[in-house]
């Protein structure tokens, strides 16, 4: 008894809700050695920038308890190389491409949206708002409702009408609902959350910060409760806005947790560094978790935790829990 | 060139532990991993998930492959030192435990087309991949000289094998407990002359690789150096293990040690610029494609993107 796993990204229907998380899968090519990228709902690419970027100096990573910090500085070859090489490759493999874009100004985001709209085959655009706004003293777009809305409005205005635009939000804000609402009002077709949290590690042997960039983005299972909280709050306030949930998902059970909080799609990120085929494993586990609870359609459990009567009579069997190993 | 570009890619498998044993200051673990053993070429590495199913240590641990054997359908051995929670966990594994293993990863050591006098330089357990390399070189008629070092005698990996199998084997220790007192770079010049070295293969800490490259350049000897950079994924997605490498087009790129390396031609690595983004690196702040600079009178073609990768 197969579970109906179809998920919606705005008006676009995807075969299942599992995606890669931006920055943890490149443009899919490396992971394709270990899994079939056409089997997951979509490949969310590493953020693409207008110009090539060399990124930040090394060390760029630090392992932390159930997580890691990264400070890679969006190293990448830029939009020209992406359109020439990465996007055609993804499409040739039958993958659905959700392209993450990052800019330093509203104009850069707009140009990226234009370039992607002119190319065929982009399933959706995810706007990485966790970037410093060079026109506002390097303040991160995602920390301001006004700046976030300005980017989303411009991107939505320029992107082809049939390409959904999702805003990727940072949890490093006082009130994520305020930012989410601003993005939704500015025309976002959906929201993606959460991005990494800013963290820092000091090497107690050298007595200096471990990362060359001093601070880095914290990701991994350590941040999952924060993702669940953010998704919950936004779903509560904006029940009609679709959410791609990301943040520390390592198993099918974790994916289900984000779905119950209100995510209709789930991005798999840092755990890929532990298990390169994690996306397909989690997809399989999610289907098992749903089947073991007697769920026939994924859509039936999206945001179900908000319904007070949800849990009654639906306790999962212990064997279903025990199965979840990698 | 070699057959590097035609080989099959890496695989992710469940590998059963055959043995874990102490080797002086280090551990050697042998896994039953036929698919990896079949694809292996010297210089490549494996990534291992550590800590079990509910691990709090998420980053894959990368280890260069010491040797592969045909028993049990194909085994893979790697050498490691305990210096953290992940390697401690690995050292506590026992026969029949099952590990999540990905490999073989990375660009292997290229082999010379014709027989050559090869010097294999290594320090500490970084020397591990040199022995399977020596086997392949010997099979193609090359002669092998070893130059191995370590802080102490028990930290020189493979001294006995080197003495038994090499045309010559020079050992250095910093405390003088084995071989010559000093480091491999102290005696490199002399060894290169005595062995009439034509090709150098080097493994070890970055300062050693830098000095080996500098000396070999002076004598115009090609160096293939396997770098050690901290990795998080080992498969090319996390961009943690980058270092500045000059491509055949003369452009410096922040190249990934895991897929563009770990073996690089020594003179292509900008050793002194490690840990920085050189101002002229592809995509550095202020960087411009050649097509735009060409206005000033160059013949650049404005090529974007990185070279296609081997392995």
Can you give a write-up of this model?
- The complex is a heterodimer of chains A (326) and B (311).
- Chain A is an alpha/beta fold and 326 residues long.
- Chain A has a single domain, classed as Alpha-Beta Barrel (TIM Barrel).
- Chain A is 29% helix and 20% strand.
- Chain A contains eight helices and 18 strands.
- In chain A, the strands form five sheets. An eight-stranded parallel sheet of chain A has the order 3-18-17-12-11-8-7-4. A four-stranded antiparallel sheet of chain A has the order 5-6-16-13, with no helix packed on it.
- The C terminus of chain A is likely disordered.
- Chain B is of the alpha/beta class.
- Among the domains of chain B are: 102 residues, Beta Barrel (Elongation Factor Tu (Ef-tu), domain 3), CATH 2.40.30.10; 110 residues, 3-Layer(aba) Sandwich (Rossmann fold), CATH 3.40.50.
- Chain B has seven helices and 15 strands.
- In chain B, strands 10-9-8-7-11-12-15 form a seven-stranded mixed sheet.
- The N terminus and C terminus of chain B are likely disordered.
- Chains A and B meet through strand 6 and helix 1 of A and loops of B.
């Amino acid at each position: 008894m197969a579970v109906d796993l179809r998920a919606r990204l705005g008006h676009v229907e995807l075969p299942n809700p599992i995606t890669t998380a931006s920055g943890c899968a490149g443009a899919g090519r490396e992971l394709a050695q270990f899994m079939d990228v056409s089997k997951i709902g979509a490949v969310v690419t590493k953020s693409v920038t207008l110009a090539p970027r060399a990124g930040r100096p090394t060390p760029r990573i630090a392992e932390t308890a159930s997580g890691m910090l990264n400070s890679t500085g969006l190293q990448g070859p830029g939009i020209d190389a992406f359109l020439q090489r990465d996007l055609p490759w993804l499409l040739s493999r039958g993958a659905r491409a959700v392209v993450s874009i990052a800019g330093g100004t509203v104009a850069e985001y707009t140009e990226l949206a234009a370039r992607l709209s002119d190319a065929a085959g982009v399933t959706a655009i995810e706007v990485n708002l966790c970037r410093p706004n060079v026109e506002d003293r390097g303040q991160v777009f995602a920390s301001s409702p006004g700046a976030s809305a300005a980017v989303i409005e411009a991107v939505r205005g320029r992107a082809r009408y049939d390409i959904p635009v999702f805003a990727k939000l940072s949890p490093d804000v006082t009130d994520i609902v305020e930012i989410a609402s601003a993005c939704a009002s500015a025309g976002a077709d959906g929201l993606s959350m959460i991005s990494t949290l800013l963290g820092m590690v000091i090497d107690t042997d050298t007595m200096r910060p471990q990362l060359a960039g001093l601070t880095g983005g914290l990701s991994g299972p350590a941040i999952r409760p924060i993702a669940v909280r953010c998704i919950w709050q936004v779903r509560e306030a904006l029940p009609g806005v679709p959410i791609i949930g990301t943040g520390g998902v390592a198993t099918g059970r974790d994916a289900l947790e984000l779905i119950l909080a209100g995510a209709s799609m789930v991005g798999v990120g840092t755990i890929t560094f532990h298990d390169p085929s994690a996306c397909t494993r989690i997809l399989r586990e999610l289907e098992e978790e749903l089947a073991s609870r007697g769920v026939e359609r994924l859509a039936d459990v999206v945001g179900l935790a908000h319904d007070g009567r949800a849990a009654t009579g639906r306790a999962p069997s212990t064997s279903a829990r025990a199965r979840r190993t990698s | 060139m070699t057959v590097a570009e035609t080989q099959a890619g890496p695989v992710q498998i469940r590998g059963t532990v055959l043995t874990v044993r102490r080797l002086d200051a280090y551990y050697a673990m042998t896994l039953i991993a036929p698919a990896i053993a079949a694809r292996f070429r010297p210089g490549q590495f494996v990534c291992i998930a550590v800590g079990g199913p509910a691990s709090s240590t998420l980053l894959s641990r990368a280890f260069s492959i010491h040797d592969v054997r045909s028993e049990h359908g194909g085994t893979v051995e790697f050498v490691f030192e305990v210096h953290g929670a992940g390697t401690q966990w690995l050292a506590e594994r026992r026969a029949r435990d099952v590990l999540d293993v990905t490999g073989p990863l990375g660009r292997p050591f290229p082999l010379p087309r014709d027989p050559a006098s090869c010097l294999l330089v290594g320090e500490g357990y970084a020397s591990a991949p040199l022995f399977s390399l020596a086997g392949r070189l010997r099979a193609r008629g090359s002669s092998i000289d070893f130059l191995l070092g370590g802080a102490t005698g028990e930290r020189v990996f493979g001294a006995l094998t080197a003495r038994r199998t090499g045309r010559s084997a020079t050992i250095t220790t910093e405390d003088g407990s084995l071989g010559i007192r000093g480091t491999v770079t102290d005696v490199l010049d002399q060894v290169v002359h005595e062995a009439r070295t034509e090709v150098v293969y080097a493994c070890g800490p970055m300062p050693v690789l830098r000095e080996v490259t500098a000396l070999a350049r002076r004598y115009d000897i090609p160096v293939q150096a396997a770098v050690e950079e901290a990795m998080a994924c080992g498969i090319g997605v996390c961009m943690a293990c980058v270092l500045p490498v000059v491509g055949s087009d003369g452009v410096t790129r922040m190249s990934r040690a895991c897929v563009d390396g770990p073996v690089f031609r020594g003179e292509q690595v900008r050793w002194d610029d490690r840990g920085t983004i050189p101002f002229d690196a592809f995509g550095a702040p202020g960087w411009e494609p050649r097509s735009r600079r060409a206005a000033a009178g160059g013949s650049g073609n404005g090529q974007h993107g990185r070279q296609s990768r081997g392995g």
